[in-house]
Amino acid sequence: MAAARAAAKQVTKRNFPEALQELAAHLKECDYVAVAALKTGAPTGWRRALPVDTAETAYLKAKLAAESFQPLHIAVCPFRFDATSHSTVVAYPYNFHLFPRDELQLGMPSYSFSCQTSYFSSMARDGFDFNMCIYDGISYLSRVQESLARQKIFIPHLRQPSPSPSTTVADSVFTTRIKSRIQHWRKGYAEPSKTADGSLVNSLRKLILGGESYGSRPSMSIDVCSDRQVQLVLETINRVSDDLVPLVVPDKAGMSRAVRVIFTSSEEDKNLLLMDIQKLEDEHSVKFRGFREVIDLLSSSQKPIISYNCLNDLTMIHTKFIGPLPPNMHEFTCSLRMVFSSVVDVGHLWREIGPLRNAKNIQAALSYLQRQYFVPMEIEIPQQDGTNSVTKGGENVLRITKLFAKLSMLLKISPKHQSQSGEQHHTVEDFCNIFYPGCMAGESDDVDCTKEPDITRTVSTDSVIFLWGFRKTSAKELRYLLTRLHHVFSNDFELRLLDKTCSVLIFRSSDTPMELLREISSESPSLNNFFSEGLKAAGFDVYWKVCRLGLWDSDLAEALEAVSSEQATSALSGHGTSEIYWNSSLMLDIKEYLEC
Amino acid sequence: MQSSRRLARAPPPRTLFTRLYSSSSSLLPANGAGDGAGSSRVGGVAVKQVTRGNLAEALEELRARVRDAAFVGLDLEMSGVTSAPWRDTFELDRADVRYLKLRDSAQRFAALQLGVCPFRWDPAKSAFVAHPHNFFIFPRKELPDDISSHEFLCQTTSIDFLAKYQFDFNTCFHEGISYLSRAQEEEALQKLNVLYHDGIASPNTSEEEDVPLRSTADLLFTERMKIKFKEWRDVIISNPRMDNHWLECNKFSTHQFQTVFFKMHPAILLNGFTSHQLKLIQQVLRKDFKDLMYISTFGEDNTSEKRVVYTDDSNDSVSLMKDLQEDLLRSREARVKSAVGIRHVIDLLASERKLIVGHSCFLDIAQVYSKFIGPLPSTVKEFALGIHKILPYIADTRHLMSASDSVQYLMRQKSKSLSSVFSLLCPAFHSTVAEPSTLSPVRIEVEADETMLSCFASGAKHEAGYDAFMTGCVFAQLCDHLDVKFEHLPPRDNLAMNNKLQKYINLLSPSFNSGTSLDLSTGMERPDTGYKRRYPTVLYDNVVLIWGYQSELRPRDIKDCICKVFGPASVTTIFSIDSTAVLVQFSKQESVNDFMDLKAALEKTDSAISVLHPLSTILEGGKTRAANYDTYRDICGSSVSKYFFADQAEAVCSSSKSLLKCENIDAADTPGVILNESILDETIPTSEKHAGGTKNVSKKEDDSEISCQDILDALQDGKALFDKRTRST
Lengths: 596, 729
What we know:
heterodimer; A: about 600 residues; alpha+beta; Nucleotidyltransferase, domain 5; Alpha-Beta Plaits; 3 domains; four-stranded antiparallel β-sheet; 22 helices; about 40% helix; about 20% strand; elongated; B: alpha+beta; about 45% helix; flat
């Protein structure tokens, strides 16, 4: 694939400020932004999204993944359709290398993170440069962390004197004293002494006048003990001379401790100094925000975000760059909307095209489109410089770009500002904010688009039973065992192993599971065989509780056991039922969540 | 200052000290010539770098070196040290809690480098000859049927710290050597045996379900295959004498069908079919060709090879199957053996029974146990005895330092970090330090294999191989201070047998601030005599763990609140675990239960007392929980990992049966509560005497003025009364 081979700009902390400016410019002229992240791992076993998950439990699992793993690499690619030919997409891919270095020594942004060796191995195979990432990766703080950090770390800053109210006697005494001190000190520099003093005298004078230096410029510190005094000092300095620049120096608690007065030799010198101070402040902001500047840019640009496996990537973006993830899906979607108003999952988009519904990943979808449809699409990457190279993450973001471009041709989606009236056009808003929790394990490059019959169906959580306590066995054997144990298992049901300790049974109706659970809770003798096999069962509410409590550290059976034994008394208390999309890649619609 | 104070709490002993002092001591060894002689001041030390590629040869060489060695230096670099700030070891941790914290670290983090440095005594040179080795480790998944998740934690500061010392992560993750612990190997072999005996390992799964022929393409494909196989079989049958010539000129050989011989049988190697097509082929063979077998095997580079094999009769096919199964078992066993990887090094050290020397090496040893032996046991005693069985002689230079008076004198006011001890005791390796050479009486040489220079690198601080070398050097000098003489040491002799060293070996300090050392041979922990404690000894029965209070509350505030109720001298110490939890030690053991009871009572009643009671500051928010020290232990031992202690405690208590434990202590439903309620009832009339209008009072005393002091007095009375009553019962 020619497009995917094309290079993306590699960004580390060395070239971050320049890249950020470039990106801002490119964002402005583009219609969409594709985003893809490369993480240190994904949950395994029953902790990954399973077909039995409802939107809510899928969110909880995505939350777990977002909180434990670390993005090492985020690819951002603003793109637009070429104005002259609609079969050309102009893209500006950037690969940002991240590392959560504790730049401010505050234990932020992340104390520790999990890694999966299989992820590292495959990254290594793809030629990922771990040294570059760890040595030079860009750090960041989330919005919430930044505000925490700002309460703890203070730097000297400029402050405008605010018009002060009436002055008291004490104030005027203070002012006079400060004024004479400053004037006396300033005279030493502003009016060069007539006699040519030796260096010894100069340094003695420095000592006596309490002078320090700020860079190459002379300065002095005036200790203050209140904000009021800061104001007075600032005003005094203003009145003394224009060639003095005051800097407010805070202490560790953020209270002003001193005002530093810096003497500048001329107007130009003063401007230079002000620019230096500004630069210092900017550098500090970079330390505070780091890569998050990119997220803030994306957010303020209001361009639709195009991504794949949105639930995973956006929970990750939320927890790393916005703030801690809320406890439920509804709050998450509300919070996310404040940051990104429209997010499009290409996975959802290709499900709009019937035959593509079973595509397992981007590769499969792309190759299907290639074979079955005629959608010429070229990706043009104008920026070229020495730092470009291909990485897996960069490849992915270009694939997303290409796929979205093709799909939007097929679905007649036009960018917001270009939508012509007359013709029947969709806008991107029609497809945004609908997430598919990826229930495919891992991102395989398998292009094999096997045609399975579409057996997606909606199942009520009431007709789901979790079963555990069996010995190591296959699904087939277990099924056979069950049919001999109790008559409810003679009904038609589907059985899947969720991990090595637990399986799930899906019944046609919700009556059978209800009956079974009732009999279990009343320890009905008809279940003696069932019990003596050591089998246990529980309804969906127990599973949901396991997810809510976050009992991720154990096998599913163990977790279900812990919750159900505790819940024994309150069993069968009617939780609201919800629906799962059994046997399909599940779909969650954010809009649905926002309305409830 | 702020940052160094933070560091002083966060990272563990070794990282801590090196980090605090690394800036002050610019003692990085200068890069110099390969083999540095002990007497000359040459900084560079050749360290052999071992990765996947050269493990086998390095092992052979190392085996000989270890056999000749007097002792072996050992060091590990890990991906992190503590999984949360509260998991740092504190001085006042009880031994079992400290072990649980260290166990958590050893289990969660990965070992990234293993440094092994054998030291051989050369009587001719009267010097030690060292061979530093640096092994890169990466816990890759090596066995295909291994379903355990290979996940490890990275502590950001540790990784960043390694990066500062130019740790090569690419080599580590690309070329690192994987491993299986003894327990994992045993399990894998057992699984193989079961598979073999059950015959499930058969490469040809017999009971296949029929694939419905869904499309015309499938039908056509099936027919085509039928014809093809029939033709091929007919040729073989009509042509019983086949040789290589037949192979070459066979007209059936195409790209997809490659005629080959497989275990002396004519066969076709299938190439480039989709999995669906392969299924169809199997179906064709099953239905129409009894004498053709479909066999899938794994080739050299782990790619599966599919073949159709012709067998003469059923006997032939049975023996072929058996042959195949044995092949499979052998290849799988070989794979398990190769997956053992870096553990061979530990096995080698164990079988040679040499003295192992580490510096502050408790965590390293725990890592060795957890990664290469098996899951860490639940008690420190089991751990000690377990490791003692495998590595019978371990010496900790940190412990030796505290044992020698002359060294203690030398080390006064100095950092105990490895690099600073090294620069002090072995100045010869530091070109920058001009100490009198008398300080380094034991000569040490580094020997590098001239022929293999490519895999040598000049050692640097915080590379496991170089650290192992430094540890060994320090050990040699310390031995000299302890009056262990090497002059008469026969070559190849194990230093572990030396009489003068006996009382120093197998004693490890669990952490730099434990003030104890663990005797590995007995599993008993005893206090170190030289250690100066910052806190008085803790009576763990008097300790209450409190968490979940409002975040703005400082430990001092909590102490004040408690002192208001229980008297100014009631609290011996208050120790903050992190910003969300404290341990409070009462001076009297009764106070623990009194506090719990009072807390429970206050939480139950909704009166003015519960609002204005001094303890209400702590209880505000309604999420404050308290428990005894054993619950603290359980929380530390849990596999849950949260950043804040309060979150951890909540998670542990809500998930496990320890929930009951916490509740038991909290809500004492025994007479205590009833008594307390009555106390509160009694105090209310006292307060009612005063009129007034406090806002937050309950229905009873709407128009009574209660000053705080009054309530306090009342409660003090009540408390005294309560004390009297409980004592009388």
